[in-house]
Amino acid sequence: MQYFPAALQNLADRFACLPGIGGKTAQRLAFHVLALPLEEAQNFAEAILEAKRTVHTCPVCQNLTDREICPICRDEMRNHTVICVVAEPKDVVAMERSREFDGVYHVLHGVISPLNHITQDDIRVKELLHRVATSDVQEVIMATNPDTEGEATAMYISRLLRPMEVKVTRLAYGVPVGSQLEYADEVTLSRALEGRQEI
Predict the structure, then answer these.
(1) Backbone torsion region of residue 159, taken as left when φ is above 0, otherwise alpha when ψ lies between -120 and 50, otherwise beta
(2) Distance (Å, whole) CA 140 – CA 162
(3) How far apart are CA 44 and CA 29, in angstroms?
């Protein structure tokens, strides 16, 4: 038995396709959109279409932009000899929030994940290698997540970069600020000990 009109069910199904959205949340979102005044619903739909029409990847760093080249790559005040490699565009936002990094980025748009059928050909590794080979890059910082896929991707890329005589570094790991040692896992504590610094 069908409980909702087909159009409403279709809308809920579209929301359910989004990452992190379950069936009940999808239904709530569909009901919310249906309750919007027509003009607001049209603005919502137009915002999606406008983003799809205008946002594309920067040809230099592969980050998302609505211009020919993204603002970070165009910024002459940034250090273009240091590239921070991240998995997703949202990781650029996280790094920028720290206000500590003044280099440029390269976005892979994923990580190598054999279980999800994602290989090195599915992410933007070739673009990174071309960029390093054709510009004055001195250091590449691997800033993929410290999980199995992120580690595998970082190791794979570092092996490819080694013959190019560029310094390849990895973000340090350790105990998060504000946490307690008793709650840290063995791998985190081990990495924290390896990356200890003199004070």
Answers:
(1) alpha
(2) 11
(3) 12
Fold observed for domain 79-172+179-194: Dna Topoisomerase Vi A Subunit; Chain: A, domain 2 (3.40.1360)
Q: Which tokens sit at 51?
A: 């983003």
> pTM for the whole thing?
0.84
| Residues 115-146 pLDDT 10s | 889 999 999 999 999 999 999 999 999 999 88
What is the total residue count of the chain? 199
The domain ranges of the chain are: 79-172+179-194
- Of 42-46, 119-123, 192-196, the poorest mean pLDDT is in 192-196
As to burial, measured by CB atoms within 10 angstroms (0-12 exposed, 13-18 middle, 19+ buried), residue 111 is: buried
Contacts of 29 (CB under 8 A, 6+ apart): 12, 15, 21
| In the chain, alpha helices (H) | 6-16, 23-35, 38-54, 71-74, 89-98, 125-134, 148-161, 186-194
